[in-house]
Design brief:
With about 600 residues, the protein is of the alpha/beta class. About 55% of the residues lie in helices and about 10% in strands. The chain is built from 24 helices and 14 strands. The strands form four sheets. Strands 7-6-5-11-12 form a five-stranded parallel β-sheet, with helices on both faces. Strands 1-2-4-3 form a four-stranded antiparallel β-sheet. Strands 8-9-10 form a three-stranded antiparallel β-sheet. Helix 6 (about 180-190) packs across helix 8 and helix 15 packs across helix 17. The longest helix is centred in the middle third of the chain and has 25 residues, at about 240-265. It starts with 10 loop residues before the first helix and ends in a 9-residue tail after the last helix.
């Protein structure tokens, strides 16, 4: 194998490169054909090339194509394959499927190389250099709810996977910090606290209650409503006292949001609606000069093909709205921040809005018409969080659940379970607290991420904190058990990495090793399709593969101890990277 062929991308990509060379020789006239490589059932081999049938449908009517059907194409693809140390053998099956068995020694060598060079060498290689992930994005002066929890957890994982893949990720918190509600809030602040500049956050108290009280006043008192509407004009006109009051309200809200982000270990850079506001007139002028903006019932709109309602970019009263801000933010991200992929993580209810924004951007020539080309914009929708009654998740008094309370309850339940198992006597308070946080917060994240994000999921503490089945608790404990096996061996694992040799003589050793080697292509698939559940499924299957290996292959005290300890360490390393990508803190003892 040449140097450039070695460790260039995922296992699947390396096989694709070999089969691409074969396809160019086999069917030189079909130069646009991409290799179709997929993992296959163990009884057939490790991977499969599935191009023959598709190729036959393209060339069967061409004269002198030289083939009698898909099997003959499959055979020639197999015969034209360049020799490579990674492939032990290929066999032909059915209508031209080429089954591939990898060389066991090559699998072992690549895992050992990763142990020495680090898991970063298994990072997938994506087509882009910079992406924006727009996620979380709560509204100032309103409580973060479980919808924001989903957006925060899913967005953070997508950002982590892209960052691991060497993409420069701009993590954007597009908070709702501008708009008509601020007139109401500021006027209420001035009225309730005449010396508002000296009033502390404690005096203003619970911002949620403050918002409700001001809204009640706004709805019931016409004079107050008039003053509030005037306050919006003065705020947007840049009047100093109004700007200062606005900034104070935003800061109180920001501190509340940060309590959630700190517990979840999530980093975000805030660029809210107010940030884009000064850019809106210029962007709308550009769109108008292109002839895209039309008058409609006093408003200014962009018509989208195939959609009954237009995208309103200037309201009939001359004000701006979500579409004005979102079009401007998209323009800014493409032109100022030079992002090649802009990803929006919101609930599925906003899908049509974003599709209209993206369509308008295509009409303007900001984005290519072909969705497979870059730069591109993607909406990552997600379903509802349901209570056990099958309805939207709320507390008993129908109020939205405070996220801080929700996360703290997960941690406290986790801590109680550890204390019940006698860990308070064995561990320091710090160890107990750290493990309770890792398991509690990890359980909430994993329960969300393991589902296809488009589906609704039921929030249930008992299920997510169960130590059996596909849960974070089970997986964290599985990782801790692997660490315990290595510790109990008494061997220096870092020394073994340098001096030991990994050999995969047992079928369960080989199956586990092959699964480890597929890590890179799984991360790539999860990134490309924006589906974190693909990584969760891989992690759970990895744990199951390890259990099977450990049940059938004695590690400590066996003749193969060194090799099997290296396989244990490789499993732990890959599990830890999966946890990191999912935003979960690993635990090392249980």
């Amino acid at each position: 194998m040449t140097n450039d062929e070695e460790s260039t991308g995922s296992l699947k990509k390396q096989l694709s490169k070999l089969f691409e060379k074969s396809l160019r020789i086999t069917v030189p006239s079909e130069s646009d054909v991409e290799p179709l490589i997929a993992a296959c059932a163990p009884k057939f081999g490790d991977y499969q090339c599935n191009n023959a049938m598709g190729l036959w449908s393209r060339i069967k009517n061409k004269k002198d194509n030289g083939f009698k059907g898909p099997p003959s194409i499959g055979k020639v693809i197999m015969d034209n394959l360049p020799s490579s140390e990674m492939i032990e053998k290929c066999t032909l099956a059915g209508p031209g499927f080429v089954n591939i068995t990898l060389t066991t020694s090559w699998i072992a060598k690549n895992i050992q190389k990763m142990l020495i060079d680090g898991i970063e060498t298994w990072a997938p290689s994506l087509q882009i250099k910079r992406a924006v992930v727009d996620f979380s994005s709560p509204n100032i002066a309103k409580e973060m709810h479980v919808g924001h929890l989903r957006s925060t957890i899913i967005g953070d994982t997508l950002a982590r996977m892209l960052e691991f893949s060497k993409v420069d990720v701009l993590r954007r918190n597009h908070v709702g910090d501008w708009g008509t509600q601020f007139g109401m809030l500021i006027e209420f602040l001035f009225e309730k606290f005449p010396n508002w500049e000296d009033a502390s956050a404690q005096a203003i108290g619970d911002l949620q209650e403050f918002y409700k009280a001001s809204k009640k006043r706004f709805d019931e008192d016409p004079d107050f409503k008039g003053r509030a509407q005037q306050a919006v004009v003065r705020l947007q006109g840049g009047e100093a006292s109004y700007r200062k009051a606005w900034a104070q309200i935003c800061e109180i809200s920001r501190n509340e949001f940060n309590k959630v982000y700190q517990r979840l270990g999530v980093q975000l850079e805030e660029k809210g609606e107010s940030f884009y506001n000064p850019h809106i007139p210029g962007v709308i002028e550009k769109l108008s000069n292109q002839g895209l903006v039309e008058e409609s019932q006093g408003a200014r709109v962009i018509h989208i093909e195939g959609v009954n309602i237009p995208l309103i970019v200037v309201k009939s009263d001359g004000g701006y709205n979500y579409a004005s801000t979102d079009m401007t933010a998209l323009w800014y991200r493409l032109n100022e921040e030079k992002a090649e992929w802009i990803i929006y993580v919101t609930d599925v209810g906003q899908q049509q809005h974003f599709e209209m924004v993206f369509s308008a951007a295509k009409r303007a020539g900001w984005l290519p018409a072909n969705d497979n080309m870059y730069p591109k914009a993607s909406h990552v929708g997600f379903g509802l969080v349901l209570g056990e009654d099958g309805k939207r998740f709320r507390t008993r008094n129908t109020e939205v659940v405070r996220l801080v309370d929700l996360l703290d309850e997960a941690k406290n339940r986790s801590k109680s379970a550890l204390i019940e198992r006698g860990k308070a006597a064995e561990w320091t308070e710090q160890e107990l607290e750290h493990t309770a946080e890792a398991v509690g917060y990890g359980a909430v994240k994993y329960a969300d991420l393991k589902n296809n994000r488009l589906t609704n999921y039921t929030f249930n503490f008992d299920q997510m904190l169960n130590d059996k089945g596909n849960t974070a608790v089970y997986l964290l404990y599985a990782h801790a058990r692997i660490c315990s096996i290595i510790r109990k061996s008494g061997k220096d694992i870092d020394e073994l990495k340098k001096t030991g040799v990994l050999s995969l003589n047992h079928a369960d050793e080989r199956a586990l090793a092959l699964h480890l080697l597929q890590f890179s292509e799984v991360v790539e698939e999860a990134c490309t399709n924006l589906l974190p559940n693909v990584l969760c499924e891989y992690l759970y299957n990895l744990s199951e593969n390890f259990t099977k290996f450990y049940s059938n292959c004695q590690v400590v005290g066996s003749a193969e101890e060194t090799s099997r300890l290296l396989l244990c360490e490789a499993t732990a390393v890959v599990m830890r990277k999966c946890f990191h990508l999912l935003g979960i803190t690993p635990v090392y003892k249980i």
